[in-house]
Design goal:
six-stranded parallel beta sheet, 342 residues, two-stranded antiparallel sheet, alpha/beta, Rossmann fold, 3 domains, Bacteriophage abortive infection AbiH, AbiH, elongated, 14 helices
């Protein structure tokens, strides 16, 4: 029975000289898909999407989506002589294409990039001492733990997918459910003047709000909406459908991930030592750590050894331990340079 679990993060690959930072993915896109790169860097409400890439996938707001799509909404009534269904289909295609680009295409491009990362086996000087007969839970998509360290695949759980999986099937995303995301966004915007039913113009006259975002998300009675045209009504409702599809597709569903690996997770019930290498201990991954502790028969007796890169990491380790109620005496920190193979 294996008693040691290694939890592997991206710092493991970086330690071996692999250019696996999100900023490296940015460089890849600059050569392979500039339109996707433009969307990622201009549609999200954060200064630097690459700093915390997966969590930042949540920062694109529904209003931003609508504003980007609204110029393509049809302006004529369905029964107008000038109306063609091509107008409606064009706006729908634009909404669908945008969402597909930020979900399916993003995953495919990300997966293709992972496949370009080179095997570090030639760089022996950075090889780490690993215990025999241990189990490995890796958040990485690369399989260097197999190819460079000869760890058997049946000892490893690739939590979010593996480089050799079908293209685009790896798991990439933020940690907030679509329901919570929508609820939080509505609460933070519902009192804004631009999203009220009646607005006042410069002549102090009131008019029904025709803001597409208001019509899409804040209008309580559709029959009273200032839609402008029936075609625009259908275009906006289709846009909402596609926008919500984005939040569903960019959500890292922990429940489904854990269910797909329940056999491996349940086998951790007798683990006595957990060694964390190169993991950022970010909040988005806390549910996994909590589940590992939950299934263990004696979680209070687990010894934790966590690698750190800088002194700032020591503070994160402390906060991580407090959040998971890990006894401080059971936690040791170490630098990877202390555990290199001779």
């Amino acid at each position: 029975m294996e008693e040691t679990l290694y939890i592997i993060g991206n710092g493991f690959d970086l330690h071996h000289g692999i250019p696996s930072k999100y900023s490296d993915f940015k460089s890849y896109l600059s050569k392979r898909d500039k339109s996707l790169l433009y969307a990622l860097e201009n549609l999200y409400d954060c200064k630097d999407i690459w700093g915390d890439f997966e969590n930042n996938l949540l920062t694109i707001s529904r209003e931003t989506f609508i504003d980007f799509i609204s110029p393509f909404f049809p302006s004529n009534e369905v029964d107008d002589d000038d109306f063609t269904y091509a107008e409606l289909f064009f706006s729908q295609d634009h909404a669908g294409e945008l969402v597909d680009n930020l979900t399916e295409t993003l995953r495919k491009r990300f997966h293709q990039w992972v496949r370009t990362l080179n095997n570090p086996i030639e760089n022996k000087k950075n090889m780490i001492v690993l215990e025999n007969n241990a189990l490995f839970l890796t958040f990485n998509y690369t399989d260097f733990i197999e190819t460079a360290y000869n760890v058997l695949s049946n000892q490893i759980c690739y939590l979010h997918g593996k480089v050799t999986d079908r293209t685009g099937s790896i798991i990439l995303g933020h940690g907030e459910s679509p329901e919570n995301s929508l609820e939080n966004w509505l609460k933070s915007n519902e009192r804004k003047r631009k999203f009220q039913p009646r607005l006042k113009n410069r002549r102090n006259k009131y008019y029904n709000n025709s803001n597409p975002t208001y019509l899409a998300y804040f209008l309580e009675d559709e029959s009273k909406g200032n839609w402008g045209s029936e075609a625009k009504y259908h275009a906006i409702n289709f846009a909402v459908e596609r926008i919500e599809h984005y939040y569903e597709q960019s959500f890292k569903n922990f429940g489904k991930v854990l269910e797909s690996h329940k056999g491996f997770i349940s086998s951790l019930n007798k683990i006595k030592k957990i060694i964390v290498i190169g993991h950022s201990l970010s909040k988005v991954d806390m549910p996994y750590f909590k589940e590992i502790i939950k299934v263990n028969e004696n979680p209070e007796n687990i010894d934790w050894e966590i690698s750190y890169h800088s002194d700032w990491d020591l503070d994160r380790i402390k906060k991580f331990s407090e959040e998971l109620n890990i006894i401080s005496a059971n936690v040791k920190s170490f630098r990877l340079s202390e555990r290199l193979q001779p």
